[in-house]
Amino acid sequence: MSPSVEELPLTWLRDNCPCPRCRDPRNGQKLFQITDLPTDLALGAVRPAADGVEVDWAPDGHRSVYPTRWLTAHRPGTGGDPGDRRGENGKTLWTAADLNGRLPEAGWAEYQGDPAVRARVLESVVGLGFAVLRDVPCRPGQVLEVAETFGYVRETNYGRLFDVRVEPDPSNLAFTGARITPHTDNPYRDPVPTLQLLHCLTNAATGGGSGLVDGFKAAALLRAENPEAFGVLTRTPVPFRFSDAHTALAADRPLIDVDGHGRIREVRFNNRSIGTLLLPAAELEAFYRAYRAFAEITLRPELQLEFRLLPGDCLIFDNVRLLHARTAFEESGARHLQGAYADIDALAGTLAVLRRERAVAAGKFVDELAGLFAGEGASAYLGEEVTMAQHMLQSAACAEQAGAPDALVAAALLHDLGHFHGPVSGEELMQGTDNRHSHTGADRLAEWFGPEVTEPIRLHVAAKRYLCAVEPGYFDRLSPASVHTLEVQGGPMSEAEVAAYEANPYAADGVAVRRWDDEGKDPEAPTPDFGHFRPLLTALLRTG
């Protein structure tokens, strides 16, 4: 329910006036300054408008129209506290055990060709702090092309890209075979490059494994275990310095930066780049106690995620959150990475655009489903006395009446989607050719729905075969059409098939959808229309 405008903060409401005198209709940007608004703002007349509220303002007579949808979505206080999107709020902090064996990754071809895959990778960088692209072409400069898929390369004194390999006269320990402990890069810059990419071209050396530590998790542990040390590291400016023959860089920032609510938003941690602190002796003692405590946490084995970059792997990670490391390697072996810096604001913006585009596509997909129910769904349902649409809608209504979770209601609604305009039709199923519609439908829906919807659909045919094998009397309750299709689909399960079915984590859900499938064949039963279930489907769509 939208709030009454009389209850809203007046300056806030006027500052958000959407009229073309207040906002440029071409780009939505405001055309006034806050100081242009009257200091004695008051509401004049308030009238209902088409799908909204019209307001006359005093003392200047300005008129605003606020859509109901906007008032409802932006009601003060309903959005909670989103915090700083760069900070720990809303992110998934992790230990190595959380991610071992299941790194956030994708193939380069899929990442390039599928917006949903690209969005998933970028979401991992934002939420987990990193992602790995596999099979990226092993050619020099390719890392720049990766960065340009989501943003812009940040050029530094190291160039647009840099080579991480052994050099005869190294300006940085990274260009040797030495072990590199967990750290962030470029803490001596202001601002720090917030993303780093490392693309493996060659890794034939003995050693040279890679490691990551979630710096936000480490800082959160310090906050919980030693609040005093945490406070010291958030308050103490640290002199980070770098210089060579052509460069002199300096930034004085705390090891742990927090927002106005005390939430972690940035970690700068690089022992190789810390200069000499000039503080009173007591403050120096407190700092070094806190610094050591934090460093010891970052070295805990349970925080160390270890893996080996292979040729074609490209690691993208948040450089003001994750600490990266490297084991020592034999300098006689070939090891060559190319790196680049970028910034997370551009990546987050690209992700937002992908989500927006996907949300539009999701709406079109639901429209397509509605069209199938109204079109092909009006045809007869495989020898039953209901149409295909009636059958699916009745099945969903049965699930709803049973109090099933929304995902199972959706599965019941869409369980026979595989019969619609496929290479093998439902009619051919009746003629003796298994169209595997359970798998076809599940695969078709997997782009938009999670396994909690698709896997019960995939199993609903197998569930019929299963119930015929394990439940006395179930076969006798099947309709003649179901008896016919049962034989086409393989008949009752064998003991081995029953055991395999029961081991499936979605076995019970498959059985539930099967039972609602059996119920949804009554030509006299009241049947809701597709629009009744549309909000439920829309809420379940995966648009991220």
Descriptive terms for the model:
alpha+beta, Double-stranded beta-helix, 3 domains, 4-stranded antiparallel sheet, globular
Write the layout of secondary structure elements.
Layout: H1 10-15, E1 42-49, E2 52-58, E3 63-67, H2 68-73, H3 96-99, E4 105-107, H4 108-113, H5 115-127, E5 130-134, H6 142-147, E6 162-164, E7 180-183, E8 195-203, E9 210-214, H7 215-225, H8 227-235, E10 238-243, E11 248-253, E12 256-258, E13 264-267, H9 281-298, E14 305-307, E15 314-318, E16 322-326, E17 335-342, H10 344-374, H11 388-401, H12 406-414, H13 426-430, H14 437-445, H15 451-470, H16 480-488, H17 495-502, H18 507-519, H19 530-540
Parallel strand pairs: 4-5
Antiparallel strand pairs: 1-2, 2-3, 5-15, 6-17, 7-16, 8-15, 8-17, 9-14, 9-16, 10-11, 12-13
Helix pairs in contact: 5-10, 7-8, 7-9, 8-9, 10-19, 11-12, 11-18, 12-15, 12-18, 12-19, 14-15, 15-17, 15-18
Shape, principal axes of CA atoms: globular
CATH fold group of the largest domain: Double-stranded beta-helix
First-last Cα distance = 27 Å
Question: What is the helical fraction, as a range of percent?
Answer: 25-40%
Profile the largest sheet.
Answer: 6 strands, mixed
**Name given to the CATH architecture of the largest domain:** 4-Layer Sandwich
Q: In percent terms, what proportion of residues is strand?
A: 15-25%
Query: Spans of 5+ residues with little confidence (pLDDT < 50)?
Result: 422-426, 429-433
Tell me, rounded to a whole number, the average pLDDT: 90
CATH superfamily of the largest domain: Clavaminate synthase-like
Number of helices: 19
Biggest sheet, spatial arrangement of strands: 4-5-15-8-17-6
Rg, rounded, reads 30 Å
The secondary-structure class comes to: alpha+beta
CATH class of the largest domain, named Alpha Beta
- What's the structural domain tally? 3
Count all strands and give the number: 17
